[in-house]
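Tutorial, part two.
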Amino acid sequence: MTPVTKAAPVATLSSSTIARLRELAGAENVLTEREDLIPYGFDGTAALKHGAACVVMPRTSEVVAAVVRFAVSQGIPVVTRGSGTGLSGGSVPVEGGIVLTLVHLHRILEVDPANLTLLAEAGVITKAIDDAALPHGLFYPPDPGSMKISTIGGNVANNSGGLRGLKYGVTRDYVMGMEVVLPDGSVAWLGSKCVKDVAGYSMKDLFVGSEGTLGIITKVLLKLVPRPKARRTLLASFDSMEAAARSVSRIIERQIIPCTLEFLDRRTCECVEDYAKVGLPTSAAAVVLMETDGHPAVVEEEAAAMESIARECGAISVEKAADEAHAVRLATARRSAFSALARIRPTTILEDVTVPRSHLAEIVAFVEEVAARHRLQIATFGHFGDGNVHPTILTDETDHEEMERVHLALEEIFSKTIELGGTITGEHGVGLAKKPFLAGQFDQASYTLMKQVKQALDPQGLLNPGKIFDLDAPTA
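Running the prediction step on this input gives:
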């Protein structure tokens, strides 16, 4: 495919352009003042900040389509944004233009217990999806750490994961359909309520995880599942991180698939306990949070087996949650890890490499070695049940010498991850932060194929430009 010329960046917009956007979206839904634009120039990623020319907050998908059609006609970049909780710079407007934030598309349109589905607009908060399913005895499993503030559209665009990914999978596994505004402003519905639907290409899957570079997701049809009848939570403490990692691998080898297998190292436990005071052990080198759910008899059997395996692998202690409130406190402790660590240094860089589970102990040991060699504070926690590790670097972005060491450490961690057959991102996405490392994970044919898809759907390169990869320069 012949490379195309990308539209020139638009740093500022003319008064006539702003006037037209106000006509399309309503004057109250268009922000242009510098102070109002500042929060839309960054997301949850450290050290990435760029300014938008304006922010548009549409209240219907029809307005989204109208704004996109106008932007394309004027060659204006469009960056879609939800709550701005991303951790890869995916919603940072690196080329100015319009930030299209979908937080006003916040209606749950239908809960359909007969078909186990829910239809929501893209701006619905993720936890609200599960809350809406609860009265029907149903369950929406994906639970990213930001579930109380992130939007479902952002989750789909980034194919978000969460603590329950081991047993229940990630966001992609629950998307049955979606409404998408394409780069030319046309609106497409992809998918259906049918459990079996193999007509044509599975186009919806192309947009899951596309990070707003191929289209703008405005509505999502989600699969729900029956809510588990029982749950058991255990917390195992270990005197080494390697022993904790081995216990997780051993549980999987024994063909036990709990809903949660989470790992926190000592530094993370100390910070979380100081922050949340939930009774985490701070003397152990690592702890593993284990949770099983389902039929009561199976839950008790799996809980006993996991306790036995943890002790076989050298657990210092295994604590069982006394009741539901205790279990919630333990899970909350894990969910607060990022917030707790962010209090230590001015800048917190949360990464999310993923390796085959058989290499968990190796990658954890490697991160420890890298931290020591580069003289960095790195706390490690993550979704060990699915191999997703979160090395979290505590640093200061204003200390340029230290940041050089941070970049060297990250390069080594990414390289080691790929060497072990892993991926540079398990749930955060590529965005801007990991773009330099993506090509190293793919062969040339597959990397080129992704670019061809982008060029075919968005020939002007106006949807979320600069993310995931750069389009090829035009040939002479």
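The CA atoms of residues 28 and 383 lie 42 Å apart. In part three we will examine how such features are distributed along the chain.
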